[in-house]
Amino acid sequence: MRIATGGISHETSSFSRVPTTIDDFESGFGLYRGPELIQRFTNSNICTGGFIDGAKSHGFELLPLLWGFAYPSGLIVREDYESLKQEFLDRLKRLEQDGGPVDGVLLDLHGAMVVEGIDDGDGDFIESVRNVVGPHIPIIVTFDLHANHTQRRVDAANAIVGFDTFPHVDMNERGREAADLIVRTIRGEIRPVMWLHQLPLFWNTPTQVTTIAPMNEVMQRIHELETRPGMLSITLATGFPWSDVPDVGTSVIVVADDNENLARSTAEELSSWIWDNRERWHCPPLSVRDAIHKGQQIGRFPIVLADHADNTGGGSPGDSTEILRTFIELELSDSLILYIVDPEVAQQAHAAGVGHFINVEVGGKSDPIQGPPVMMNAEVMAISNGDFTYDGPMYAGLTGNMGCSAWLKQNGVSVVVVTAHEQPLGPAFARSLGIDCPSMRYIAVKSAAHFRASFERFAGSIFNVDAEAIHTHDFKKLPYKKRTRAVFPVEIPPRS
C-alpha cells in the first residue's frame, strides 16, 4: 500500500499588509522535500507525525512529497503559491510515473489559506491533487480547528478530519485518525461520505478553549455523536474571522460510512444545537486596564494577558504597543511581554551588548493600527540568535528559531523583542534568555489561546484582552469586502 503525503499550510490574515512569500515558508516552519519530511516530523506532535506513526502501525509505505508551513501573515503571493503547488504536483506525477498510481493521499493543511486571486487556497490545492490522482483514489485531509470550510474542498476530498483541541495538542492523534481512515477506505472496509453545514457565526476565541466550559461541553457532545453506528468522524471548525473570504465562519463536517442521510442529519442536528446556544460562544472584548484590575482583585499571580488582537499566531504583525505602554505607565514591577516583533531593536541590542543601556523606539512600525512606537531607555539583559527547543505539549520534539532576539528591561518592565512572527507557545524561549516566567507578576503574550497549553500550569489568572491592533475581536470593526452573509454577533445581534 503506497500513500503519498505533504501539504502547503498557512493561516492567512486578509487584513495584514505583510504579504507571504516562498521566503516566509523557508524561514518559517520550513519547506521539507522528500525524505527530509520524514526526518523532520518523526515522533512529533503534528498531523504529519501522526501520518508517520500510522504508516508504522498499519505497515503502509508513506511517500513524502513536499511540506511547507509559513507563519501566519497576509495574502500569499500568487506566483509563489503556484510555484509550491506545481512542485508538489510534479513530485506526485513523478512518483506515479516511477512506481505506478498511489493507493491514497494524506494531506496536512490548515483550512484558512488565502492566495492572491484565490479565496479558497486549500480547496484549490486539494482539487489540484484530485486532478492528478483521478476520481477513485482516496484523499483524506487534516485541518486546523480554525478552518473556513467550503463545499469545494468537501467535494474534492474523501474525508476531512479537524482538530478537537484548542490549544492544539491533538495534532498527532488526528494524523493517526486520518491514516486509519485511509487504510480502511483503501481496503474497502468503509466508504466515507461527507456533509458540510455552514453557520453564520463568529466564535469568540476565549470561549473556544477546549479544556474548560463552555467549549469542553461542545466537544463532549461531538464525541458522543461520533459513537453512533455508521459514524466515522465529526469536525467542528470555529473558523478564522480575519480571512476576508465568502465562506468565513463556523462550520460542521460529518463523515459517515456510506450513508449521506446520516451525515446530513447529524450535521444539521449539531449545527442547530450550536446555533441555539450561540450566546454562550460570545463574549464582549475586555480592555487591558480592566483585565489588570480584575487580576489584581483576584490576587493570584502571575496575571497573564492574552493579547489576542495582535496574535502573531493568526497573522497579526506582533508589534502593537498598547500593553507595553500601559505596563510602563502603571509602573508594574516584574512584568513581561512575549514577544514584540521588532528586528530593528533586536539588532540594536546585539550591537550594544549585554549590560548596556539603549534608547530605542519599540514596536509600532508595521501599521498605524498597531499604535505608535514606545520610547524606552532599556538595559540589554540577554541576546540570542533565536534557537530553542519546544518543550510541549504543542510542537513537542521540534526545534524553533525566533531570529535575532533580545531581552530588554526598563525598571520593572521586561520585553522580549524578536524577528520571527511566532507566538509564545510556552516559556521555553524566554527560559533560554534567562527569564523565569512563573516568578513574574504580569505576563502579556501575543497569542489567543495556544499559550495556555504551557502557561496555564503556573498562571494565577488569565484574561484575553482586546488591545488596539489589526486582529480586533470586535468584529464590527473589521473592513470586510467579500463576506456574503450576515453573521452573529455583527449583523445578527446578541439577544441579551
Structure, explained:
It contains 14 helices and 19 strands. It is α/β, with parallel strands linked by helices and 496 residues long. It folds into 2 domains: 2-281, Rossmann fold, CATH 3.40.50.360; 288-472, no CATH class. The strands form 4 sheets. Strands 12-13-16-17-11-18-10-19 form an 8-stranded mixed β-sheet. Helix 3 (47-58) crosses helix 7 and helix 4 packs parallel to helix 5 (121-133).
Keyword list:
single chain; 496 residues; Rossmann fold; 23% strand; 19 strands; six-stranded mixed beta sheet; 2 domains; globular; alpha/beta; eight-stranded mixed beta sheet
Shape: globular
Query: How many β-strands, per DSSP?
Result: 19
Q: Approximately how much beta-strand content do the residues carry?
A: 15-25%
CATH architecture of the largest domain: 3-Layer(aba) Sandwich
The amount of helix comes to: 25-40%
* Biggest beta sheet summary: 8 strands, mixed
CATH topology descriptor of the largest domain: Rossmann fold
> How many distinct folded domains?
2
What is the terminal separation in angstroms?
56 Å
CATH class of the largest domain: Alpha Beta
- The radius of gyration is 22 Å
How would you describe the oligomerization state of the chains in this entry? Answer: single chain
Number of helical runs?
14
Low-confidence stretches: none
Strand order across the largest sheet: 12-13-16-17-11-18-10-19
